Amino acid sequence: MKNDSEKTKRMPLLDAVLLASFFLSGCCALIYQVGWQRSLFGIIGVDIDSITIIVSVFMLGIGFGGMLGGWIADRAPRRRIQCYAAAEVSIALYGLASLTLLQHLGDWLAMTGKGALGSAVASFFFLVTPTMLMGITLPLLTMAFNEWKNSIGVSVGQLYFFNTLGAAAGAGLVPFVLLPHWPLDQVIRLAACGNILVATLAIFAYRWQMEHKK
Question: Rounded to two decimals, what is the model's pTM?
Answer without folding.
Answer: 0.89
